[in-house]
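sanity check this:
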Amino acid sequence: MKAITPQIDEFSAVGINHWKADVALRECFSLSPEHKKAYLEDARIIGLRDVIIISTCNRTEVFARTSRPGILAELLIKHSGGNTEAFDRFGFSFSGEEAVRHLLRVTVGLDAQILGDLQIVKQVKEAYECTHSLGMADTVLHRLMQFVLRTHKRSRSETDLASGAATTAYAAVQFAKKNLRTLKSKNILLVGTGKIGKITCRNLMNMGARNVTLLNRNRQRAENLGERFQLPVSGLENLNKELAKADLVIVATGADRPVIGREQLSGLTGTDRKVVMMDLSVPRNIDPALEDHPNVELVNMDLLSDTTDEAFRRREENVPKVEAIIDEEIGNFRIWLSEQKVVPTIRALNEKLHDIRLREIEKFRGKIPDSSIEHVDHLTRRIVNKIMAHSIDHLKENHEAPEEITRLVHSMFKLEPESPVDR
């Protein structure tokens, strides 16, 4: 039976992101870590592997080695709060090379709200590691991820796409500084000291903020960050009090529901104080109803942009160069996929030659001193490996039309018929 080899047409990608869906819709489709695992378990049950899920503040997307994007969308709807009507209207579905290209564009930051986003590659890595930890990442996905990460590395080393501070956290602080004119004299409350919170804190300090108070559900985590930047820490029990004296509030937690609502702003009632509140979380952590609060200017992810930044213009000029790198790496991945057509023959030939080697050693074992067996084994292994190296080169050079060459090799060495390769 002929071996099944991977094809680029087998890949699919589905999802919903900031290009067509606002933050309210994106939070409906967001997946918590628990929901991601449930999605992957369901995928495993129906025979899908090589599935990675990227769920961030600006996107929830699923990439997989399957030619059935519809099943990926069905699982996304099942495990999120989204529905079919919303997905059909605002979601996307890519197949084949278009799906692979999308994954590369997302990873390098070309598809990001903040062009060249420095954080997305970490999120893609984490998505792959989650799949790998569940034993659902096969050789093909592993190799594709190598091409993906090499593309990202080249986009940084061969272009200026990384020029400036390209992160959502940076854009948020930049927005706040422009809105408030200065950060130095403002009382700032940072709620959430996870990954985004840490980056936001650093950006605040770099842009002149001095009066920053940290607040986190896990107080020890907040104290660790506070010690690093010499900043005070407060507890959740003091949230109302801290909000009452803040000029700027930035919230970036992993909570699946709002942590700040009208009841937390009781200290502002009856005053003319204004507070800028920025929500960097999806699902949102500040009640959207506060948009109508007389003391609040509410800013969510959709209002952030760096398109007026000089660094953005420098990054934008490098987009064609990055697209060319993506084209090149997709071409390299295609070559690797094509080479897999001859892998079963290479494996069979290697087993055959080593089988001959071992049988010949066994035949002459009585004539070889025990002290020399190890040297003979080493020598014959090296000979076979050198023969295999030349054979592998020749087979891979003929990967575009492998039928004739593999048939010849199978006939010459009387190799066993190829068996199907697990997908």
